[in-house]
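Supplementary Methods. Inverse-folding protocol.

Structures were first reduced to a discrete structure-token string of length 496. This string, shown here, constituted the complete conditioning input.
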């Protein structure tokens, strides 16, 4: 019996030893931990091997379960986890889940329809030669032209973190126009447009439109100017450059061998030396201190103190006044009047003075045509007045006739309508006859020389020509329809 008890105790001890061995076998060989990125869009799995010597194999389901236990439910990278476990790359950190990045809204932006860069862009010819004159520094715009517009901020899209929670996107920032004078914003607030014709400018981050373009000089720093409005140049226009404007051009300095063109007036403070290549064209008046070796044309009047060796044309008159008041050399042409103190000089250069009567002749043709038409109209008027008398006589006859009332009324009505029609025609003829006929006198197209017209001055007035073979003083010269006439000045001729 004692032996039996001893055996039982021995067996129990053996069982205890086995239990201890099983407990040792159940000790974990690895430990799973995780790390979440600050924005919660990445979940990293780390494997810590507790027994470096043991052969470890981690089932991927265990990692899936671990993630679930820790509420990591979105963006699980199943294939990456499977490959991780298959390759037993436990020393590496595993990205086990990746959330959805939010798509932030795009900032609003202003798109400019003109160049806002200060960088000068030089045009190149085919052979690579740089054109330093055409810098295109002036950006002309018409009224209501869209100068710039806003592309609105776009909406974004929320993301999702690894816990399945939304991640808010950042809204795009709005922008607004920084605008100056002569501009306006559209009703929807998305467009900035010009309120006038002019030149769009971008300075100090501000957009505005100028109706006057101002520069100090026109030279290599500015390039040529082509502007839709008025131009003011505080200095000079250098040789080889051009200034073109839809409005007036005012130059406070001088013009060298340059090209000037204006749809308005041109004013040059210190004069022009065209260097035999400079020219000016204006639809309005041209005023200059002096003009030398240049080609000048105005559709109206030209005013200066001196014209020297230049080709000058005016649609109306050329008035040369001032301390010198001289025309020397070249050809000076006007349709109405040429006024100067001195024409030519003592060296007797060939100086051509021309009164162009082309418009006068055309006007005379029109007058003759109008006179012929008036004669025809007067004949028609007499004829129609006679018809009115006939209608009145017929009306009296009908009234006193034996016709019944119905027929009388019908005939009277017809006669009345005819009379109204003829009276309207008579009114139109009288209106045409009242139109003025020009009384332009050929002698009003003249040359006034307040001082001396020197020998070798050649005068053309209409179809007549005259060459001065001696000096002529204080004279008025005109075409009387038969020949060129030279007579002393009257007091009324002296002031142009």
């Amino acid at each position: 019996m004692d032996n039996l008890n001893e055996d039982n105790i021995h067996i129990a001890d053996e069982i205890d030893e086995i239990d201890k061995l099983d407990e040792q076998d159940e000790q974990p060989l690895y430990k799973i931990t995780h790390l979440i990125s600050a924005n919660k869009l990445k979940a990293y799995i780390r494997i810590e091997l507790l027994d470096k010597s043991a052969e470890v194999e981690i089932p991927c389901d265990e990692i899936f379960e671990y993630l679930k236990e820790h509420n990591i439910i979105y963006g699980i990278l199943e294939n990456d986890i499977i490959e991780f476990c298959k390759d037993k790359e436990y020393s590496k950190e595993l990205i086990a889940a990746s959330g959805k990045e939010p798509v932030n809204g795009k900032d609003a932006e202003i798109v400019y329809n003109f160049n806002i860069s200060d960088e000068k862009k030089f045009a190149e010819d085919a052979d690579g030669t740089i054109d330093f004159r055409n810098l295109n520094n002036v950006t002309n715009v018409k009224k209501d032209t869209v100068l710039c517009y806003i592309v609105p901020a776009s909406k974004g899209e929320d993301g999702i973190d690894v816990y399945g929670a939304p991640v808010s996107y950042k809204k795009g920032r709005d922008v607004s126009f920084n605008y100056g004078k002569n501009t306006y914003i559209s009703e929807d607030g998305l467009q900035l447009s010009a309120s006038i014709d002019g030149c769009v400018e971008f300075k100090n981050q501000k957009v505005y439109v100028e109706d006057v373009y101002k520069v100090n000089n026109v030279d290599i720093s500015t390039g040529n100017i082509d502007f839709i409005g008025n131009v003011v140049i505080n200095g000079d226009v250098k040789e080889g450059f051009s200034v073109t404007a839809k409005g007036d051009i005012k130059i406070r300095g001088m013009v060298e061998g340059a090209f000037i063109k204006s749809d308005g007036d041109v004013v040059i403070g210190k004069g022009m030396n065209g260097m035999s290549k400079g020219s000016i064209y204006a639809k309005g008046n041209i005023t200059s201190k002096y003009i030398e070796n240049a080609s000048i044309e105005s559709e109206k009047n030209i005013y200066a103190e001196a014209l020297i060796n230049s080709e000058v044309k005016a649609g109306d008159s050329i008035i040369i006044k001032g301390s010198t008041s001289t025309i020397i050399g070249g050809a000076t042409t006007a349709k109405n009047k040429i006024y100067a103190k001195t024409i030519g000089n003592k060296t007797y250069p060939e100086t051509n003075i021309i009164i162009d009567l082309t418009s006068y002749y055309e006007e005379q043709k029109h007058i003759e045509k109008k006179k012929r038409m008036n004669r025809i109209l007067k004949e028609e008027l007499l004829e129609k007045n006679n018809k009115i008398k006939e209608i009145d006589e017929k009306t009296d006859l009908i009234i006193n006739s034996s016709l019944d009332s119905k027929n009388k009324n019908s005939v009277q009505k017809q006669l009345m309508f005819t009379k109204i029609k003829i009276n309207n025609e008579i009114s139109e003829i009288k209106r045409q006859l009242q139109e003025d006929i020009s009384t332009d006198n050929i002698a009003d197209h003249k040359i006034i020389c307040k001082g001396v017209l020197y020998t070798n001055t050649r005068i053309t007035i209409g179809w007549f020509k005259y060459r001065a073979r001696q000096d002529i003083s204080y004279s008025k010269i005109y075409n009387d329809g038969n020949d060129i006439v030279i007579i002393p000045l009257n007091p009324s001729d002296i002031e142009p």
